[in-house]
Amino acid sequence: xxxxxxxxxxxxxxxxxxxxxxxxxxxxxxxxxxxxxxxxxxxxxxxxxxxxxxxxxxxxxxxxxxxxxxxxxxxxxxxxxxxxxxxxxxxxxxxx
Length: 96
Fold this sequence. Notes:
- This protein has 96 residues and is mainly alpha-helical.
- It has helices at residues 4-15, 20-27, 31-44, 50-60, 88-92.
- The termini are far apart.
């Protein structure tokens, strides 16, 4: 029987997009055990894919995607402040 903290950890790793292999190594469980627990979570929450499970549980638990502390709509690699704007002609010119 799995504990609540282990279950929560599995959910957090699913939300981060980790594979079953990676989760099993992190938690020192067999890959098959992780697959069974993920499948059980999918059934409990009415999800048909791992992605929808991670998304659904992430929303329900109020988790944020890594790299987005403010919940910004920007991507994780987007600069925090706008940089200089260049025209198309300026972008295509390369210094020699």
